[in-house]
Amino acid sequence: MLQLARNALEGTPEQLRLTANRDYWAGTPLSVAFQKDSVSDYDYPHASEEVLAERSSIADRVCEELRMAGLPAHRWKPDVDGAIGAEVAVDPGEGSVGGIFVTWTADFGPALAESLLSGDFQAPVIRQNGAVAQHMQEAIIGILRAAGLDAAPSGDDMNPLAVRVAST
Question: In the chain, what is the straight-line distance between the N-terminal and C-terminal CA atoms, in Å?
Fold first, then answer.
């Protein structure tokens, strides 16, 4: 997999487009495993339909508030990856496990991916991406609090620069 990614990045633009196309992966063992995992949810307990509807409504409001402040914002979709701006996701988990999360994605182009793939984690582009994400986390929290929403750092060690928006 790593070699395939490297080949795509080092290849022609057409090779990169080909491997970035989701249809390219359809039917492969990786795709089958992903589909199986996404359907099973590993018996992950989900919140009630009522709670999920409330979270969805709040997530829509989060997008609206961020857009009014001039930031690009969109709802997370499983088949869309890498959209620039604030991505607002509703985690269907029950209780404090689930919720509404906002993450910021900047556009540093192929330099970021190349540094990550090569293991150069001290590259300036990686530091810059982290700094931008941290500043955007602070800005998003401020914007959402000014709009009357309860927003705070996610506290998630797997996504420490995400923002968690509370629902009732």
Answer: 42
